[in-house]
Each structure stands twice: as structure tokens, then as C-alpha cells.
Amino acid sequence: MPLTFSVEQSDRVILVTPSGDIDLDTTASLREVLQDAVAKPGVSRIEINMRKVTVLDSSGIAMLVVAHRAAADRGITLVLQDPGPMVRLVLDVTNLS
After folding, report:
1. Cα 2–Cα 14–Cα 24 angle in degrees, nearest 5
2. What is the pLDDT of residue 49?
3. Which of 42, 48, 50, 93 lies 20 to 30 angstroms, CA to CA, from 13?
4. Phi and psi, residue 6, nearest 5°
5. Residue of 97, 89, 15, 16 whose CA lies nearest to 57
6. Do the Cβ atoms of 20 and 4 come closer than 8 Å?
7. Which residues neighbour 11 within 8 Å (Cβ) at sequence distance 6 or greater?
8. SS3 of residue 57 by DSSP
């Protein structure tokens, strides 16, 4: 399933809502969105709503870990919200929940 996403900003918070599979074929597009979010001046929090994500593979996990570190380096909180059952399972198995 292709990956689409929406990006909304409210004050200092950016909400990214991906929809579809986060895998080797789609990770680059989400990485770019998150890099842009981290680079925006004045942002204090990035929320990624995962409820519409159907697959999260190891490349997606790696990209999220790198994004989390990049955000933390700039004093930005990055959180995953509302993961569905499949994503929750992946996060639990990898001790990232």
C-alpha cells in the first residue's frame, strides 16, 4: 500500500499523519517530512499519529529512531500516537513502546 500523509501545524506543534505502509519503499518520503518538521524554527513538539499505518518494517523503525534523536538534539519532543494493533505489536517486540 502506498504511503500518504498529512502535515498540520498549530503554534509550536506539528502533527504528521501517515497512512499506509512504512517500509523500505516508502521510508524516504516520511523521513523528508520529519526532517523538514525538525528543521522548522519554533517547533517544540512533533506528533506522529500512527492509527492509519498498516505496516511498519525495520527500515521504518530505524527512520523513526533517527528522527527521534534528531528532534531531541534540537530540544523537540517527538511522540507516536494511537498505533494500530500491527504497529503496536512491532513497537512492543522491539521494546520501543
Report:
1. 30
2. 98
3. 93
4. -120, 155
5. 89
6. yes
7. none
8. coil
pLDDT at 2: 85
* Segments in the chain below pLDDT 50: none
Beta strand pairing call for 4-10 and 45-49: unpaired
pLDDT of residue 25: 95
Q: Which residue in this structure is represented by grid cell 500516537?
A: 81
* Rounded Cα–Cα distance for residues 52 and 35 (Å): 21
Burial 32-56 (b: 16+ CB within 10 A, else e): ebbeebbeeeebebbbbbbebbeeb
The rounded distance, in Å, linking the Cα atoms of 85 and 97 is 12
Residue 3 φ then ψ, to 5°: -100, 125
Could you tell me the three cell numbers for 30?
Answer: 516520511
Q: How far apart are CA 33 and CA 35, in angstroms?
A: 6
Q: Count CB-CB contacts under 10 A for residue 72.
A: 12
